[in-house]
Specification:
Shape: elongated
Distance between the termini: 35 Å
Helix content: 25-40%
Number of domains: 2
CATH architecture of the largest domain: 2-Layer Sandwich
Structural class: alpha+beta
Largest sheet: 4 strands, antiparallel
Strand content: 25-35%
Number of strands: 6
CATH class of the largest domain: Alpha Beta
CATH topology of the largest domain: Alpha-Beta Plaits
Strand order of the largest sheet: 4-5-3-6
């Protein structure tokens, strides 16, 4: 499924954010099969979303001029595995970057992280994203 920004906007629906935009999208495509996330205008439908916190290694710092090319290559690896890079930001503080990825499975996540890890330029910590509704549903049965 292409990102919303790649699909354009359906007739009569303007670009927007928040509940109104999500409601308008639901009217067009019906209920989503799984959890939906919208990150920087990119829509994720039906896959697991992960937040990847990363630290650059000394090797990455020594080869900093190659960062843009490594980022492009990482995006290609994610897409080849059937996933989407929803966001990638460099940060100041405990972590050097934060990426949000939409992937078909945890196994796919592991393969991607191992492939990128072979470069020796990053170490990562990954969290699976759970939307509030999913947690509320689980909590209601406790």
């Amino acid at each position: 499924m292409p990102f919303a920004s790649e699909m354009g906007h359906p007739p009569g629906i303007s670009a927007g954010r928040g509940p109104a935009a999500l409601s308008a999208l639901r009217e067009i495509v019906g209920e989503f099969p799984k959890i939906t996330f919208i990150v920087h205008g990119k829509v994720s439908l039906g896959m697991a979303v992960y937040v990847v916190l990363g630290k650059l290694t000394q090797k990455a710092i020594e080869t900093a001029k190659g960062m843009a090319e490594r980022d492009k290559k990482a995006d290609q690896i994610i897409r080849a595995a059937g996933g989407k890079l929803l966001a990638n930001h460099y940060t100041l503080g405990r972590y050097d970057f934060v990426a949000i990825v939409d992937l078909p499975s945890t196994e796919t996540l592991a393969k991607i992280l191992l492939e990128i890890g072979k470069w020796g330029t990053v170490s990562t910590e990954t969290m699976m994203v759970l939307p509030p509704e999913e947690v509320y549903k689980a909590a209601s049965s406790v």
